[in-house]
Design brief:
This protein is mostly helical. It contains nine helices and four strands; from the N terminus they run E-E-H-E-H-E-H-H-H-H-H-H-H. The strands form two sheets. The chain has a two-stranded antiparallel ribbon. It has a two-stranded antiparallel ribbon with strand order 3-4.
Length: about 210
């Protein structure tokens, strides 16, 4: 974002305009003249990558090259509590995925990193014109943090997540309403959410949601 990109005259009500410049990088070269100059005067940037888009990651945000000058201070408190080190985890996963793309043998810790990274990538995917609500984002990341999707086949992660959200909308309304009203995830709401998630996983593994 580019704050105070223009000042309005008093006749037009005064104030300033915040702009969001969109720059096309040639060959993904973010260090070219125009991208570099625009980046230098903005409060951060979101870098969208073609390769990620074609691999099904949408929105195709490159977390390594995307930067926020204000950090996490602009996030809801609930999101701050569940997001933690997600950016680092995604970066580590994508870097490791490149090295293991050709079927190299990996140790247990690397296999877990790849599995967790795949789960997180699937959870962050959103359908066109159907963005997740704050509660849905918080619920997905909270579930990820509490290993709810561990043990679920990789191809079932996204369908399982959608069924989980439907379940929570029906069976965890108190926590959902609290997050909507306050933007925070209290200890009480977190406990209710965790209990609902554990019940969902148990019933899902028993075939009740398939």
């Amino acid at each position: 974002m580019l704050e105070r990109s223009a000042c309005m005259s008093k006749e037009l009500g005064g104030g300033s305009i915040t702009a969001m410049p969109v720059i096309e990088t040639m060959g993904g070269n973010i260090s070219a003249y125009i991208p570099t100059n625009v980046i230098s005067i903005t409060d951060g940037q979101i870098y969208l990558e073609t390769e990620l888009f074609h691999s099904g990651v949408r929105p195709a945000v490159n977390t390594g090259l995307s930067v926020s000058r204000v950090g996490r201070s602009a996030q809801h408190k609930a999101m701050q509590k569940v997001s933690g080190s997600l950016r680092i985890e995604l970066s580590q996963y994508r870097e490791m995925a490149v090295f293991t793309r050709f079927g190299s043998d990996v140790d247990d810790s690397t296999a877990r990193l790849l599995n967790r990274g795949h789960i997180l990538t699937e959870l962050l995917k959103q359908k066109k014109s159907k963005p997740y609500s704050l509660f849905e984002e918080v619920a997905l990341l909270f579930a990820y943090r509490n290993s709810i999707f561990d043990g679920i086949p990789e191809s079932d992660i996204k369908p399982c997540a959608e069924k989980m959200l439907d379940y929570l909308h029906t069976n965890c309304t108190a926590a959902e309403n609290a997050v909507k009203a306050t933007g925070d995830l209290s200890d009480e709401s977190a406990e209710r959410l965790k209990e609902a998630l554990n019940l969902f996983k148990e019933s899902y593994l028993n075939g009740e949601h398939k």
